[in-house]
Amino acid sequence: MKLQLPVIFSPCFWILGILAFSGCSTVTLTVNSVPEKAKVFVRPVGAGEAVEVGVTPVVLSADQLKTADASSGPIIVEVRKDDFRTESVLVTEAAAVDMKLDFALQLVDKDQGQGKGSGNAIADAQSLNIAIDRLFEVRKFISLESYGEALNHLRYIEDTWPYLSSTYELKGGILFLQKKYRDALAAYALSLKYNPKSVPSAQMRD
After folding, report:
1. 125-205 has which fold?
2. What is the pTM (predicted TM-score) of this model?
3. How far apart are CA 136 and CA 150, in angstroms?
4. CA neighbor of 198 nearest in space, from 180, 179, 158, 171
5. Dihedral angle at the C-alpha atoms of 56, 72, 42, 193, nearest 10 degrees?
6. What is the CATH number of domain 2-107?
């Protein structure tokens, strides 16, 4: 199974929804960019330095990801090219499924003083780490049936990362448990809007 995701969004940091596929030892991660010849870096979330693993277009094997200490768990994939904005994406399950990432790079706007470098990417990564922590907190509160606390955490994630499908999927589940079926349906619809391949959301909607 291969998952193809075009990465053409702004701001320059994007997050992929949590995947729930079974592992496969032959998994590959394909990274393309327009223009080509951009350097590709990977690193685990919350630890370690970004490791250069190739130049686009590149197909990364499980062994290459393992060498970069990024063979499992959430990782950040960065694409860097001189005179273009650094683009980054979070992959929550690197070893779960064959994946293809397509990056459309944007030129740096020098007239507005947007310099090159990873400063913005670092700030985004820090914010992203907080969002990931909140998702784990949400799951904990759901297991404890503390639905109010779970929804409070989800509101923060909605404000910070409004296009994250998993947020609305979790929200829909909570609202369903609270028997707020109309609101739950609206949340699942948003989840499918941002990730049409979300099987749980499609099942609940239908």
Report:
1. 1.25.40
2. 0.48
3. 10
4. 171
5. 70
6. 2.60.40
